[in-house]
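Lab notebook, design round three. We kept the backbone fixed and only want residue identities now. Task for the bench partner: fill in a sequence for the structure below.
Input structure tokens:
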């Protein structure tokens, strides 16, 4: 047990304990407010729906607690428990060595990690989501999704891992800089390709149908300078009755996507308001800013990995007997979350600020009242809690809590 071992243990245990504490706070806040709909929502949301949201929130959090605890155990098993040594041994036995041996090691690591996450995901989908009436996915589609995702991971991951490990092996002391360039270009390519090449493998995307909604929306798009070819309805109802809308992609490939469930639930003016919110993200360049932040953070990450991979203690302190490039990459991926968890509230603060900006834009360009009523419908249909704990929310929520968000929209409307 070295100083490095203790440091990682301290951070990993602190991260898990913080997560469990915040979850406990959230469960307590939801339970305390379960008997009464908050006054601001008393006219729009029934007590039964409010209680369903409370129970759904608590059920999801309980499962999340289990997943956090097992995550800590899995981290310890891979490192101090000798899991990575064992995997190295298996690759050796199979005669895999050198660059391809490293690629095989990492692919096996990802596959095993995916398998370990599977029970929690199955329980979430087929027990919790089903109990609250949200799950629409059949076991067959679930299996097909999983096979497709694994195949994609192998197809995309294999060449990427090969290039990374080849750079670590042969590009000299500055390998991390080249690796970052490859990684950054790869991420940009994926962001660009995702909406047009990858998402259609899992869902059908159709242009918004003609009608009152489309006419309203087209005039909004023209006002805001956005091309209407980027507007799609996705068959989200194949998997879940949760509704959503999102903004994705870069350049000509950028799209605004509505879930079919949402389009069914909202009136034309509400859909227009939600769209105006998404256009607000586009207008303020939120996607570009987020990508820039991701690139800067990953540069820091690669520089750190460049240094750590040269230190023997980095490996031995975490139970890895044989230092190697693939072990360095894997250890880094395993251990990083214990240190970066403190960034979560900062990133979410940034994201909530973006949501306020997009809401203000929506009020200026569409109907603020319709935005509020669409949000209330979405909170109710998704069983999102209206009474989160303030600290939990500050840490975990990428969107402002319902009462604060609606207050802010009303403020914008008065201006
Ligand atoms: Zn938004």
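Proposed sequence:
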């Amino acid at each position: 047990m070295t100083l490095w071992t203790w440091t990682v243990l301290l951070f990993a245990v602190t991260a898990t304990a913080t997560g469990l504490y915040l979850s406990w706070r959230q469960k307590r806040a939801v339970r305390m407010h379960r008997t009464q709909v908050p006054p601001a929502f008393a006219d729009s949301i029934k007590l039964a729906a409010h209680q369903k949201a409370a129970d759904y929130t608590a059920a999801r959090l309980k499962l999340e607690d289990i997943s956090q605890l097992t995550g800590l155990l899995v981290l310890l098993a891979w490192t101090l428990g000798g899991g990575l040594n064992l995997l190295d041994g298996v690759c050796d036995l199979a005669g895999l060595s050198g660059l391809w041996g490293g690629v095989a090691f990492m692919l096996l690591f990802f596959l095993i990690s995916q398998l370990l996450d599977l029970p929690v995901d199955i329980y979430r989908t087929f027990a919790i989501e089903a109990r609250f009436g949200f799950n629409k996915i059949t076991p067959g589609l679930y299996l097909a999704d999983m096979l497709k995702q694994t195949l994609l991971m192998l197809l995309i991951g294999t060449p990427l891992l090969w290039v990374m490990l080849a750079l670590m092996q042969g590009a000299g002391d500055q390998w991390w800089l080249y690796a970052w360039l490859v990684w950054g270009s790869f991420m940009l390519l994926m962001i660009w390709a995702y909406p047009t090449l990858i998402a259609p493998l899992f869902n059908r995307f159709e242009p918004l149908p003609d009608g009152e909604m489309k006419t309203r929306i087209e005039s909004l798009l023209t006002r805001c300078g956005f091309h209407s070819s980027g507007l799609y309805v996705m068959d989200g109802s194949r998997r879940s009755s949760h509704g959503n809308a999102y903004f994705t992609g870069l350049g000509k490939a950028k799209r605004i996507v509505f879930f079919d469930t949402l389009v069914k639930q909202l009136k034309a003016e509400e859909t227009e308001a939600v769209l105006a919110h998404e256009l607000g993200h586009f207008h303020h360049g939120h996607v570009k800013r987020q990508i820039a932040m991701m690139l800067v953070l990953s540069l820091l990450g690669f520089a750190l990995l460049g240094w750590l991979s040269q230190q023997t203690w980095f490996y031995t302190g975490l139970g890895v007997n044989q230092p190697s490039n693939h072990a360095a990459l894997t250890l880094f991926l395993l251990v990083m979350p214990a240190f970066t968890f403190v960034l979560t509230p900062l990133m979410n603060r940034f994201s909530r600020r973006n949501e306020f900006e997009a809401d203000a834009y929506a009020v200026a360009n569409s109907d603020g009242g319709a935005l509020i009523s669409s949000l209330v419908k979405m909170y109710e249909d998704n069983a999102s809690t209206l009474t989160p704990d303030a600290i939990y929310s500050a840490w975990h929520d990428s969107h402002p809590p319902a009462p604060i968000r609606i207050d802010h929209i009303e403020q914008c409307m008065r201006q």
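Keep this in mind before ordering anything: The CA atoms of residues 12 and 338 lie 5 Å apart.
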